[in-house]
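Z., the sequence and structure:
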Amino acid sequence: MKLRFRLYRRSQSGRYYLQDNLTGKQESLGTTDLGEASKLCHARNEAMRQPELNVQLARAYLAAGNPEGLDRTWQFAMDELIRLKTGSTKQRYQRAYQGKAFDSLRRVPILQTQADDFLRVLRKDAVSVNDHLRRLHNFALDTGWLSRAILPRKQWPPIVYRERRGVTLEEHQKLLAQETKPEFKAFLELLWHLGGAQTDVAQLTAEHIDWEHRLVVYRRRKTGTVSRLQFGEGLAKLLQTLPADGPLFPRLATLDQKRRGEVFLCRCRRANIAGI
């Protein structure tokens, strides 16, 4: 293996210097003693050589104990992480890891990954990319496929989420005023009264309405907790206009989360509503 640094002495000062054979950079060792300078030069070359030896030793041990680990790529880790998810969460992970931002990482063996490989992905400067790369990295650490962090915690770019807010009363009234489809209009009204997630409200059925106690009772899909909301005359009049059996919103209930969200955002753009 070619040495990275070489030692030389300047005749005028008598001091010894190091030259980097790769970059050509020169630096003084601050000594005129040949023995001391030789030790410093040797230490610098060993410091550059040791990481390469460590990688070779690690691959040799893994080849003996777990041959499959040598060729395990980040695409394999993505597939395994997605496989552990269910429902809408699984769909969200699939969309994220199918993104072009991860293309440069897919075929990189996990054990040969360098910080530059992650930084290349993070240059996309997207919150979703940053978030899902962190999740993938932590998954590889937790499973033991990585023995150390690729990027130290402090070197990860901070995740800055775009500010979000709820719909104001004025905006809600604008959405209702422009809506021509009765089912979607009723959906918007019920969202306003219940304050629930769009998926939860779209999936409500007549069986979720307890008319005796005037309660809307359903289980939140995201958290699994039960929501019990009491309603008054205003909401009762709205619920009476909806189907008495089966889904309250038969068409919306068949749409997936992404498509339903696109429909809602289309309505917002038409009403000049932003920041939702």
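The longest strand covers residues 5-9. The longest helix spans residues 34-65.

Let me know what you think.
H.
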